[in-house]
Amino acid sequence: MSNGTSTAITVLGLSGSLRQKSFNSALLRAAIALVPPGMTIAKGSFAEFPIYNADVQAKGFPEPVQTLAKQIRDADAVLIASPEYNYSIPGGLKNAIDWISRVDNQPFNGKLIAIMGASPGRIGTARMQYHLRQSFVFLNSIVLNRPEVMVGNAAEMFDDQGNLTDEATRKIVGELLKALARVVADQHLLKGATR
Amino acid sequence: MSNGTSTAITVLGLSGSLRQKSFNSALLRAAIALVPPGMTIAKGSFAEFPIYNADVQAKGFPEPVQTLAKQIRDADAVLIASPEYNYSIPGGLKNAIDWISRVDNQPFNGKLIAIMGASPGRIGTARMQYHLRQSFVFLNSIVLNRPEVMVGNAAEMFDDQGNLTDEATRKIVGELLKALARVVADQHLLKGATR
Amino acid sequence: MSNGTSTAITVLGLSGSLRQKSFNSALLRAAIALVPPGMTIAKGSFAEFPIYNADVQAKGFPEPVQTLAKQIRDADAVLIASPEYNYSIPGGLKNAIDWISRVDNQPFNGKLIAIMGASPGRIGTARMQYHLRQSFVFLNSIVLNRPEVMVGNAAEMFDDQGNLTDEATRKIVGELLKALARVVADQHLLKGATR
Amino acid sequence: MSNGTSTAITVLGLSGSLRQKSFNSALLRAAIALVPPGMTIAKGSFAEFPIYNADVQAKGFPEPVQTLAKQIRDADAVLIASPEYNYSIPGGLKNAIDWISRVDNQPFNGKLIAIMGASPGRIGTARMQYHLRQSFVFLNSIVLNRPEVMVGNAAEMFDDQGNLTDEATRKIVGELLKALARVVADQHLLKGATR
User: Which SS3 state, helix, strand or coil, does residue C79 take?
Assistant: First the structure.
């Protein structure tokens, strides 16, 4: 049987924002720096995805979609850091999920997901996060309940270079990654168990 | 004072799907054919929108965004016909809303919205519609409560040429347009009233 | 034609909490003190409602349900101040809505609604408010979009006697009431208009 | 190590409706009759719960709350069968959750949950189910993604004695229970594993 604690854990990180100085891309970088032992977080991208169109899909999935689909499928978990646009999921991120969801051997199926979000306001992307959770019910993913990482007042949480300087936020991001590691270890253990 | 009932009513129609044979584009065409007297529905498009990126916005809104923004601003109301993707708003449609929401003199502000949706399954896009309604709270739009047009089993509602043949659905689409006309008439009346 | 601005405006206020020292009951009292000229806010209650049961309804609506239903029907608008319980509407408030929604000549139909909420945490009842908005789509009510009154860190916003002392919160509550008054005036004007 | 497949599985069933001839109570009875080997479903009730009031709680949790809290804590999983009222969770069921959520050693924490719902209309309680899922994020429960049991047109699915006669619905209820059994077995295995 596999030993859950010693297994390497691979995570695919996805920022919901394409902006160069995005708080959420910065939050993802912070997470990469805060990984617990044995975990690595690689970054994926949907920047080159076209708007979803079933007629385009019929001619074959675009290269960037195939790439991200494979990255997600190969990872133990997906870590999403996303802003909230208009009280919901950013269209770009949702469009990426829509493309990925159509790929054979649906990559999000049974996949472990952790969600973070940073916003300038007080609510800290809560509205986006519950909409995202609803999509992942359909996709049959396993979304961590806790901790919920909702970074409000983002402008005060990062320095000018986009480093996450707020200690409470660094702590909760670390806790999210540890919670992720625990569930991945459980999944490895269950896969290894003979029943 | 303006006379609400005789004023021409202009509606901007938007399909949430880019697929050529989309049920929702077909539903929108059906609505265009079912307009009550005095109403016209023009079609807008987000097919050429890039994925939203604030850095791109900083260099100027792309031409297709400006075009749709103006169409929405000039219309009395917006009629959306959209599928549900992954239990929420299609990324392409949400991306269009995200772009439009940043344009000066925010085009959806105070705008009247009517929502329809068609899906192959039984639920008929209900989950998409409540997420869309939440976005329009932020955008300060006025979304019609009734009738809710949720077209389930879409494959049986249209013929091979994409004509809406189901009588009950044709009736409810007509009722939605009439409800839209009534609220536009109210708005015209209120604007014309001296207070 | 009626003159919207001079008409008296009656509002039925409802607190989602039964606790004696409830922040939300205190928020409602603050609103009562902050009413614009011409508006009065009376308090309703669901404290004596039984848990909804259609078999009980079949024998006749309980007295307290009939009383609140009449109060809502007679008012121009309903002002709800409610906590968030378990990321949604408090069961007691929802139970009240469930009872009222079954009364003949459904009292919430077309009724104007304004929502406020106070919570000890940062999010300030946002999650409760969007669920409440969804219920009011079914009930065909008109819920004000703005301002959204989400009072976070409630313990710091009130003094020991439950007086709302935070100036920014007092201001936004006042704005909500003024927004309510404007829409009621519009409704009075529309009802008075011959068309 | 415990052998997941042979362990007895105890489920606490809860109907969201108090009506004698409730479709959802009937759906729960159908589930009880369809249990896979090794599973038993006991019925809990919130019929005698008062409306939640923190002042009442301060004097001690009412007896029926304590009883249900213990039943939930002692069970491996909770099976909810609930109608949808006003596009959301019935107030009575939500009130029960609100009470239970305050009991020490929070009974829903980490608890496995399966949701079913029956409604006369076509949507089959979908709107209620996503609101319920959001509450269980806060409560840190594990809600099964699939199958989603949304029984539309309930009047045609049961006979006059309230027996679930629709074969497709009987099948999906059976699948939900089997999915529940699998996850409970996983949890037993994880608890038994030395790590």
Answer: strand
* 3-class DSSP assignment, residue D80: strand
Q: Closest to D5 (Cβ–Cβ): which among A5, A148, A195? A: A195
pLDDT over 90 percentage in chain A: 92
- Judging contacts by C-beta atoms under 8 Å, the chain A residues touching residue D137 are 130, 133, 145, 148
Phi, psi of B194 (to 5 degrees): -85, 125
Angstrom distances, CA of residue D48 to CA of A101, A138, D80: 45, 36, 18
Per CB-CB distance under 8 Å, the chain C contacts of B191 are none
Packing angle of the helix pair C91-102, D91-100 (nearest 10 deg) = 170
For B2, C1, C3, C147, the CA distances from C194, given in Å and listed in that order, are 12, 8, 13, 31
Element (H, E) at D77: strand D77-81
Q: Please name the chains neighbouring A, where neighbouring means 3+ C-beta pairs under 8 angstroms.
A: B, C, D
Q: How far is CA D122 from CA A31, A96, D154, D187, in A?
A: 44, 30, 9, 35
Per the CB < 8 Å rule, is B85 touching A49? no
Predicted complex ipTM exceeds 0.90: yes
Put simply, whether D166 touches B (Cβ < 8 Å) is: no
Which comes out higher in pLDDT, residue B56 or D194?
Answer: B56
Spell out which residues of chain C touch residue D89, defining contact as CB-CB under 8 Å: 88-89, 91, 94
Q: pLDDT tens digits for D30-64?
A: 999 999 999 999 999 999 999 999 999 999 999 99
Chain B residues in contact with A96 by the CB 8 A cut-off are 91
Long-range contacts of B20-25 (CB under 8 A, 24+ apart): B20/A55, B21/B162, B22/A54, B22/B83, B23/B83, B23/B118, B23/B119, B23/B120, B23/B151, B23/B154, B23/B155, B23/B157, B23/B158, B23/B162, B24/B81, B24/B82, B24/B83, B24/B116, B24/B117, B24/B118, B25/B81, B25/B162
Place of tokens 């609505």: B31
Tokens for D127?
């709107």
Phi, psi of C169 (to 5 degrees): -70, -40
Which of A132, A135, A190 to mutate against chain D (most D CBs within 10 Å)?
A190
| C-alpha to C-alpha distance for B128 and B112, rounded to whole angstroms | 18
**Which residue type does D108 have?**
F
Instruction: Concatenate the DSSP letters of all residues of C5-62 into one string.
Output: TTS-EEEEEEES---TT-HHHHHHHHHHHTPPTTEEEEE---TTPPPP-HHHHHT---
How far is residue B74's CA from residue B10's CA, in Å, rounded to a whole number? Answer: 8
Q: Which of C166, C113, C116, C159 is nearest to C136 (CA)?
A: C113
Report CB contact under 8 Å: C152, A122: yes
How many whole angstroms separate alpha carbon C129 and alpha carbon C88?
A: 8
The whole-model pTM stands at: 0.96
Confidence bin at B123 (pLDDT 50/70/90): confident
Per the CB < 8 Å rule, is D126 touching B123? yes
DSSP H or E run through A43: strand A39-43
Place of tokens 């704005």: C175
